Amino acid sequence: MELELVTKKQDPSLKLLVILSKAYKTVMEQVELDVKSRGISLTDFAVLELLYHRGQQPLQKIADKILLTSGSITYVVNKLEKQGYLTREQCELDKRVTYAVISDKGTELLDSIFPGHWDKIKQIMHGLDYHEKEEAIVLLKKLGTAIREL
After folding, report:
1. DSSP state letter for 97
2. What range(s) does the HTH marR-type domain occupy (predicted)?
3. Are 48 and 106 a contacting pair, CB within 8 Å?
4. What backbone torsions phi and psi does residue 144 show, to the nearest 5 degrees?
5. How many contiguous H segments (helices) and E segments (strands) does the chain have?
6. Interatomic CA distance for residues 138 and 95, integer angstroms
7. Of 18, 57, 86, 149, which is most buried, counting CB atoms within 10 Å of its CB?
8. 30, 120 contact by CB (below 8 A)
9. What is the 3-state secondary structure of 46-95?
10. How far apart are CA 125 and CA 14, in angstroms?
11. What is the residue extent of each domain of the chain?
12. With contact defined as beta carbons under 8 Å apart, do 45 and 51 qualify?
């Protein structure tokens, strides 16, 4: 029993989890505040930003990439389509697949808000210098890969 306590004290895994969780929460709070200040919800922004930077996407891939359920993505896509920010296109090769495509109106919206949002992201991440950011990217990718292999 005592040996187990010593091991827990020597292994910083729990501390890393807590600090990583707190850092993520703090970053996302700031990102969400910034996006909301630009007149759009974080979820709507995430969908449009994905389409803006990666082009058309199958609806299921959008759900996977921004961590939403398929029911939630349908709701968000319906709303964005009604607002004219995206359209749906059926896949020519597989009619079961539907793509979301950012519209001209959606592109104009992202053209107007993304530069300021990018500046805010740089401001949020200012606590690390360039090399520390690069190192954090490598380490977090390594951690994610190891977790997926469990």
Report:
1. -
2. 10-145
3. yes
4. -60, -40
5. 7, 3
6. 39
7. 86
8. yes
9. HHHHHHHHHCCEEHHHHHHHCCCCHHHHHHHHHHHHHCCCEEEEECCCCC
10. 24
11. 14-148
12. no
For residue 98, what are its two tokens? 């539907």
Q: Give me the amino acid identity at 78.
A: N
Is domain 14-148 annotated with CATH 1.10.600.10? no
Per-residue model confidence as pLDDT tens digits over 43-87:
999 999 999 999 999 998 898 888 777 778 889 999 999 999 999
Beta carbons within 10 angstroms of residue 80's beta carbon: 23
Tell me the residue type at 18. V
- DSSP structure class, residue 94: -
Residue 122 CA: distances (Å) to CA of 48, 106, 145? 20, 23, 26
Which runs of E-coded beta strand occur in the chain?
A: 57-58, 86-90, 98-102
CA angle 16, 17, 21 (to 5 degrees): 115
Tokens standing for 150?
A: 């469990």
Instruction: Examine the pLDDT at 29 and tell me if it is beyond 80.
Output: yes
What 8-state DSSP symbol labels residue 136? H
Please tell me the total number of residues recorded for the chain in this structure: 150
With a CB cutoff of 8 Å and minimum separation 6, the contacts of 35 are 41, 42, 45, 117
DSSP per-residue codes, 108-128: HHHHHHHHHHHHHHHHHGGGS
